[in-house]
UniProtKB/TrEMBL annotation:
It comes from Streptomyces prasinosporus. Residues 94-121 are annotated as: Disordered. It holds the Pfam family DUF4096. This is Insertion element IS402-like domain-containing protein. Residues 2-63 form the Insertion element IS402-like domain.
Amino acid sequence: MLAPLIPRAATGRPRVEDRQVVNGMVYKIRTGISWRDLPERCGPWQTVCTRFRRCALDGVFTRALWQIQARADAAGDIDWLLQIDSTIVRVHRHAAATGRKGGPKGRTNRTITPSVDPEAD
C-alpha cells in the first residue's frame, strides 16, 4: 500500500531495501531515540536519516497520509466527528517564576517608579 508512494531513484548504486528503511523511520519516531542509536536491522542510520529528511521535505508523508485517509474514507472507515480537549496543565508557581529550579537568581525585572512626579514642576 505504501510502495507506490515512496520515491525511487532511477540510477545510482543499489539502495537499502525500502521496507527496512521505513521500519527504521517508524522505530525512530515511536521510540524517540537518536538516529545513531537505530538498531542494525534498520539499516545504516545515515541512510535512514537522509531518506527520512528527503521524504519530509518532498511532502511524501503528507501525500501518503492524504491517500490513506481517502481510501479509508471511501471504505467508510473514518468517522470525521472531532473532539477538542481544552485541558490546561499549569506549572508549579516556583517553576513559573524563572523556569529554573531554586527560584529567582540574579537580576529581576522590576518597575522603578519615581518618588517625585517629574510633571509636577
